[in-house]
């Protein structure tokens, strides 16, 4: 069914369609609409299961992990400070191999205070062992949540689906809401492996030796790496059922491109428009969208950018003292490629500032004109 | 109330607690009363050390070693998942120490209690961070020596029972290992109640209290008989029942047996006695008030 709704409502729709029996949440702007919508449905009996209204995001994640290990599908949503407060439990969830699914609405981190879009909140959780997706719009967020359960439950790792504050969370767009039967076919109810067996009592999360800890991390790394394949397969199966697919990254007009813009999240939509104009002006330019960030699709990126001359990575985030985080990752992925392209880091849209088609045009023209590498990130502002 | 005597021992022998550990005695009594249809949550503390190092464990029921500040929401997550699965006959028990309850876990305990999550939360209070080597907590009594209060703790012990009562949860009680039947009765009663149950359990710690390893039960009894740690219950945050009328011994009898109070000056002992008498009066008043209202 085609409906007009915000990104937040699209996420709530996905959670309902996935029949998630345990939701634990705590309110934070701009995630609140997800929590409220699910509460409305719980009150009217449209939502199956239990809604835990915890006293903090930290406890919300604690309850999700515990319920997941007991065997049920779980969900939480947060943003910014809430995600930062959860940090300890994010490591714990991945360590416990709990397939928790979470939506994070990308909002800047204080100080100073603000509520606006910025990807630093989730990107600074990149080493916690969570699978991470970045979404362009409400439709992709809805679809990614459904895919997230399928992936999480195959590999037993938690998944974070991120979408930017306001630009996605509050913008109303047309969203295709799948039929319940379709989602049921794609994502049947699941009985996750029960970690608590009354008849065969075990001890979960024990203290282990250094060697065992190392072995455990090695095993988790193998699982994490396998996600690249699983995510591609799940996306293909999703496309078969629902008619929409995204890939773990998306290449646009790359065949003959000499210069490539790389984006993640809502800036991608604007860049789609901008590169059309740039093409009309005779520039051999293409666009690469990063959707899966953890595990980083190294091979896919290497393949997509093979033979390109210059790359401009647009980051709505900055790791102070280094630069844009997507750019860091991209450079690291390309470092062993033969004749790897010059990779430039552009910081745009920090703190929710606008990344207009003109801003993207400016970045493109800047990178086209350059012939020498620059390590430093470049800040691009709107006029 | 009937307590089955021949329950299996669910805290297996050979665990890593210090000799004379009151906490291990407390855990053993609680687990024995809970029985095998229990899932336990423990947090980093002496409970973690007692649990053993992989692949060994001393716990006889399925147990998760969760993070420090989340005993309550972890237990609540398990309890709700069990409800979803229709497993109504399994109870969820959370063990946390005084640090994990009075300090770092207080907010999450409050959150779960406010929601009246169906869990039994047992605080094993040994009155300091013992597992990390005797540092002061907000459960450490006035003037007690710890490694971070070498001159004695300048603050009073937090009244966790009153904090719990302010949540109007169905059942809270104090208990201690020197009164094992009382402790087991309270666990049995808590098992029959749905919602958040809280048992504040005083567990002497020979290592941290600087006492010989063979007097933990005796100290536990003295804590009750001196009114330092009265045995009582609070139902729905308002009905108070005193379970044992103390012999009203002087606090000195309790304090002077412990190395952590060895440095106490006379005026400090007097102050402790005054505080204890004052708290007892308040408790008596609440209990009397509950009784007259009940009539």
Task: Give an overview of the whole structure.
The complex is a heterodimer of chains A (383) and B (295). Chain A is of the alpha/beta class and 383 residues long. Chain A has two domains: 2-242, Thiamin diphosphate (ThDP)-binding fold, Pyr/PP domains (Rossmann fold); 249-379, Rossmann fold (3-Layer(aba) Sandwich). Chain A has twelve helices and 16 strands. Chain A has helices at residues 7-17, 32-43, 57-70, 80-95, 120-123, 138-155, 180-186, 210-242, 267-280, 298-304, 325-334, 357-369; strands at 2-6, 22-25, 50-53, 74-79, 101-106, 131-134, 159-164, 172-176, 203-204, 249-252, 259-263, 285-290, 292-294, 310-315, 342-347, 378-379. In chain A, the strands form three sheets. Chain A has a seven-stranded mixed beta sheet, with helices on both faces. In chain A, strand 2, helix 2 (32-43) and strand 3 (50-53) form a beta-alpha-beta unit. In chain A, helix 9 (267-280) packs across helix 12 (357-369). Chain A starts with a strand and ends with a strand. The mean pLDDT of chain A is 97. Chain B is of the alpha/beta class and 295 residues long. Chain B has helices spanning 22-34, 46-51, 71-84, 98-103, 106-114, 160-165, 180-191, 206-209, 216-225, 252-255, 266-294; strands at 38-42, 63-65, 91-97, 120-125, 171-176, 197-202, 232-235, 239-242. Chain B has an eight-stranded mixed beta sheet, sandwiched between helices. In chain B, helix 1 crosses helix 7 and helix 3 (71-84) runs parallel beside helix 5 (106-114). The longest helix of chain B has 29 residues, at 266-294. Chain B is globular and about 60 Å long. The mean pLDDT of chain B is 95. The interface between A and B is large, with 41 and 43 residues. Strand 9 (203-204) of chain A pairs parallel with strand 2 of chain B, so a sheet runs across the interface.
């Amino acid at each position: 069914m085609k409906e007009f709704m915000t990104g937040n409502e699209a996420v709530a729709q996905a959670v309902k369609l996935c029949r998630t029996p345990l939701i634990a949440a705590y309110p934070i702007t701009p995630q609140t609409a997800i929590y409220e919508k699910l509460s409305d449905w719980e009150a009217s009996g449209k939502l199956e299961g239990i809604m835990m209204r915890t006293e903090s995001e930290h406890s919300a994640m604690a309850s999700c992990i515990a319920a997941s290990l007991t065997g049920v599908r779980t969900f939480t949503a947060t943003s910014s400070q809430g995600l930062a407060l959860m940090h300890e439990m994010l490591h714990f969830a991945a360590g416990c191999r709990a397939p928790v699914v979470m939506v994070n609405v990308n909002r800047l981190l204080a100080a100073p205070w603000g509520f606006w879009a910025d990807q630093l909140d989730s990107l600074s959780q990149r080493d916690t062992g969570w699978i991470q997706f970045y979404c362009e719009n409400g439709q992709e967020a809805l679809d990614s949540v459904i895919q997230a359960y399928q992936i999480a439950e195959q590999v037993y790792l938690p998944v974070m689906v991120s979408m930017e504050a306001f630009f996605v969370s509050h913008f109303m767009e047309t969203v295709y809401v799948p039929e319940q039967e379709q989602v049921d076919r794609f994502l049947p109810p699941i009985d996750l492996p029960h970690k608590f067996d009354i008849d065969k009592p075990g001890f979960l999360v024990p203290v282990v030796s250094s060697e065992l800890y190392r072995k455990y991390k090695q095993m988790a790394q193998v699982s994490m790496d396998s996600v690249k394949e699983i995510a591609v397969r799940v996306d293909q199966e999703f496309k078969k059922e629902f008619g929409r697919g995204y890939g773990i990254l998306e290449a646009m007009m790359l065949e003959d491109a000499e210069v490539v813009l790389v984006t993640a999240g809502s800036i991608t939509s604007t860049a789609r428009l901008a590169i059309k104009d740039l093409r009309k002006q005779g520039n051999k330019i293409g666009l690469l969208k990063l959707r899966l960030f953890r595990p980083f699709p190294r091979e896919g990126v290497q393949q997509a950018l093979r033979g390109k001359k210059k790359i401009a990575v647009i980051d709505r985030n900055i790791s102070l003292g280094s630069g844009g985080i997507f750019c860091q990752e991209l450079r690291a992925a390309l470092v062993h490629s033969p004749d790897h392209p010059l990779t430039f880091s552009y910081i745009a849209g920090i703190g929710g500032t606008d990344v207009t088609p003109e801003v993207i045009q400016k970045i493109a023209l800047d990178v086209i004109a350059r012939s020498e590498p620059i390590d430093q990130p470049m800040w691009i502002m709107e006029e | 109330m009937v307590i089955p005597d021949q329950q299996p021992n669910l805290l297996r022998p050979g665990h890593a607690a210090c000799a004379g550990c009151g906490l291990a005695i407390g855990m053993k009594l609680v687990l024995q009363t809970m029985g095998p249809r229990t899932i336990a949550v423990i947090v980093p503390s002496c409970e973690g050390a007692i649990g053993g190092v992989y692949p060994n464990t001393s716990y006889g029921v399925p147990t998760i070693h969760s993070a420090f500040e989340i005993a309550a929401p972890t237990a609540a997550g398990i309890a709700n998942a069990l409800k979803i699965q229709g497993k109504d006959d399994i109870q969820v028990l959370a063990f946390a120490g005084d640090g994990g309850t009075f300090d770092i876990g207080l907010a999450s305990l409050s959150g779960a209690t406010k929601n009246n999550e169906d869990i039994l939360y047992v605080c094993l209070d040994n009155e300091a961070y013992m597992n990390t080597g005797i540092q002061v907590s907000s459960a450490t009594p006035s003037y007690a020596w710890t490694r971070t209060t070498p001159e004695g703790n300048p603050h009073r012990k937090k009244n966790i029972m009153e904090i719990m009562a302010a949540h109007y949860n169905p059942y809270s009680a104090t208990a201690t290992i020197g009164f094992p039947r009382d402790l087991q009765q309270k666990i049995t009663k808590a098992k029959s109640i749905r919602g958040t149950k809280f048992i504040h359990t005083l567990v002497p710690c020979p290592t941290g209290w600087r006492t010989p390893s063979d007097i933990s039960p005796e100290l536990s009894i003295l804590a009750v008989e001196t009114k330092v740690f009265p045995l009582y219950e609070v139902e729905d945050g308002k009905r108070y029942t005193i379970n044992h009328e103390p012999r009203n011994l002087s606090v000195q009898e309790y304090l002077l047996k412990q190395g952590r109070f060895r440095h106490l000056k006379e005026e400090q002992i007097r102050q402790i006695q005054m505080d204890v008498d004052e708290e007892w009066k308040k408790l008596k008043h609440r209990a009397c008030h509950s009784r007259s209202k009940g009539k």
